[in-house]
From TrEMBL:
It is found in: Cytoplasmic granule. PROSITE patterns: CS. It comes from Urochloa decumbens. Keywords: Cytoplasm. SUPFAM superfamilies: HSP20-like chaperones (SSF49764). The lineage of its organism: Eukaryota, Viridiplantae, Streptophyta, Embryophyta, Tracheophyta. Residues 82-107, 119-141 have a biased composition (Basic and acidic residues). It holds the Pfam family CS. Residues 151-240 form the CS domain. Small heat shock protein required for the establishment of auxin gradients and for patterning of the apical domain of the embryo. Involved in the specification of the cotyledon primordia. Also required for normal inflorescence and floral meristem function, normal developmental patterning and thermotolerance. Acts as a molecular chaperone. It comes from the Eukaryota. Residues 14-23, 108-118 have a biased composition (Low complexity). This is CS domain-containing protein. Residues 1-23, 82-149 are annotated as: Disordered. The keyword Cytoplasm applies.
Amino acid sequence: MAIISDFQEDEAPPRQQQAAAGGADVEEALAALLERCGGALPFLQAAIGVAHRRAGLFRDPSAVSKVTSMAAAARAQVEAEERAAREAKRKAEEAERKAAAEAEKAAKAAAAASAAPAAEEKPESSAEKDSMEVDKKEEGNVRQPNAGNGLDFEKYSWTQQLPEVNITVPVPEGTKSRFVVCDIKKNHLKVGLKGQPPIIDGELYKPVKVDDCFWSIEDGKSLNVLLTKHNQMEWWKSVIKGDPEVDTQKVEPESSKLSDLDPETRQTVEKMMFDQRQKQMGLPTSDEMQKQEILKKFMAERWTSQGRKWLEKDQSQSPEGVGWGICFTSIFGLSG
């Protein structure tokens, strides 16, 4: 038996190689036929016609459902590949944001260390103390955004772009997906580990597209949740209603990504960025500027109309009004 087994093992590789070679030949032949047919759909139509005429494919009542299932499986594979590509892109962007956040934190720490001696020597005035107290009160409700336009908490952190929100939850090292509880609904999110109190459990700040949301375990020590916003043209102030909010006037859209947007979306984002800068400088936004222009035009037309009435009245009442009319005409650019 040992000899037969050895013989079968020696014989197996050539058969597998022949099968692989045969499969490659078939694929090459089908690829050539696909090109001759002029596209995938004409090719499929021809193939279904041959299967129907030569093999009676559709005499089997379940044939349609079987073909549909094959197509659905192929589509599911494409969607899985697209999700994997998006996840890989998200991971790369998340890594870049974390690196930027670490660099920013190190720079702030260095600046604070260098400024500490000067702060000790300079006594604080009562006005400065009041200002610091006001800032602390404001920080209790609205906070400065992190490098990813979100916030960092003890139990989780989150970042955002206009289309989506990314949540990172630290978990014990070695955590498997079967231990995770992640329930994503349109207006509610629950995240935690089985047998333990939930880490996040509350009403979402805004609705999400549930079918486009997913989660994954990173390196066995962090749980990442991707939420796709239902309205992809607004910034979130928080993930869960009632949590501390981020100051959305200080978020910084990634200008390098504007080129990836369609013209209409890009125009909207650029308008939002312009309005944000104007507010920070105490200047009117684009909408306010447009209203001011409309008001100026209205007032100019009103003055022109009123000036014409005064000119006609002046000329009709007195011959001396002709001089007045000429002066009025020169000032307002009117003609009799």
